[in-house]
Amino acid sequence: MLLRHFTRALGLLVVCATPALAAELPGVTATEIKIGSIFPFSGPASSLGNTGKGLIAYVKSMNDRGVVNGRKIDLVAYDDAYSPPKAVEQARKLAESDEVAFMFGQLGTPGNAATIKYLNAKKIPDVFIVTGANKFANFQEYPYTTTGLPSYDTEARVYAKFVGKTLPDAKIAILYQNDDLGKDFVTAFKDVLKEKAATKIVAISYETADPTVDSQIVNLKASGAGALLIAATPKFAAQALRKLHDIGWKPLTMINMVSSSVSATLQPVGLDKVEGIVSAAFFKDPNDTKWAADAGMKEYRAFFDKYLAGSDFADLNYLTGFQQGVILEQLLKQCGSDLTRENVARQARNIKDLQIPTALPGILVNTDAGNSKAWTQLQLQRWNGKVWEAFGDVLSGAE
Questions:
Q1: Alpha-carbon distance 43 to 86, whole Å?
Q2: What is the distance between the alpha carbons of residues 69 and 52, in angstroms, rounded to a whole number?
Q3: DSSP assignment of 61-114, as one string?
């Protein structure tokens, strides 16, 4: 499946680059900038494709507002079905056939792992990719890449420390996806527990081609663990939570942020059946009525009603797409009339104290020469049966 999104608007600002100069830049003309992206619109992680739909909608809003020096944004978004070979095929198509100016927001750890070396070798900015795999934030190895999610390493360390304080003597079970998404969580837990890891951690993986994770959950229960971390994509996280309920196992349960969506993960299980589970967040939950009068959430609601009418407002994947759109807008504004790939890459690592309307208070987007990660702050939250409730303080990835 291929999704292409073309939107047009009259520019509100004067075009600063001459047509001749613009014509010399890949993906840039005097009237347009072409940006590429890849999402799992189909396949085992298709619910995450709504992040792409949210970004597409935000680009439409940007074009309607004419924010990019009079140029329209042509966002070319392809489907990789969460398949690494397909991701490679689509990345090559975007780079060599579509000749995009840069890549923005490609989603998925497996797909990004398959394409990141190719894009960096071609010196194509590969910015704010939607994955928390820690290795992608290595600027020395990937100088053209920045990440758009808190790293799995940072997230895992927050959970590990939480378990250590809450259940210091408990054995910890981990269900993890057998790729960088899951492995980063296991590695971080082992690093926090150090010499105790060998006796306290029981980790079992699953493959994205597996029909269910029922057997893994049964085996993890048999380990006698008092805490469980589910490091998965929404489909498998929902399966795991449902199996927990079916077999009556009630450990201290944590799910990774990728799978914290109410509509994609919790509702399929039953909102009352997952009460008490813990996750982390860096954004305001649109399901929580305490944000109803919040100015940032009102802004998001207005955007959603206009550009995503008929979609599920509770789905956090759309919100992620919106937040990515805000970052893209800031990036393009900072680039101004200099849309060379070198400047795009430079400005992607020069975001300063960007306040996203839907981010939690005190959490800002910052990148610099020593930090390729957009988000380095988190807050824990607990599901009360109806909404996620934040508890504790905002935690820095450095802690």
A1: 11
A2: 24
A3: HHHHHT-BTTBEEEEEEEE-TT-HHHHHHHHHIIIIIS--SEEE--B-HHHHHH
Residue-wise pLDDT for 260-297, tens only, equals 988 889 999 999 999 999 999 999 988 888 899 999 99
Rounded distance between C-alpha atoms, residue 110 and residue 114, angstroms: 6
For residue 159, the domain's CATH number is 3.40.50.2300
Compute CA distances 295 → 142, 302, 357, whole Å.
37, 11, 8
**Which residues constitute the domain of residue 247?**
152-281
59 close to 8: Cβ distance less than 8 angstroms? no
pLDDT tens-digit readout, 67-106: 788 899 999 999 999 999 999 999 999 999 999 999 999 9
Residue with tokens 């009630």: 250
- 216, two tokens: 């893994």
Kindly report the length of the chain: 399
Cα–Cα distance, 171 to 176 (Å, whole number): 16
Closest CA to 41 of 79, 76, 91, 6: 79
Q: Assign residue 392 a region (left: φ > 0; alpha: ψ between -120 and 50; beta: otherwise).
A: left
384 found inside a domain: no
Residues 33 and 124 in one domain: yes
Q: Which of 334, 362, 360 is nearest to 349 (CA)?
A: 334
Q: Identify residue 105 by its one-letter amino acid code.
A: G
Q: How many domains does the chain have?
A: 2
pLDDT above 70 covers a percentage of the chain that reads 93
Got the DSSP string for 16-71? -S-HHHHHTSTTB-SSEEEEEEEE-SSSTTGGGHHHHHHHHHHHHHHHHHT-BTTB
- Report how far apart, in Å, the C-alpha atoms of 216 and of each of 189, 211, 212, 226, 361 are: 19, 12, 9, 16, 38
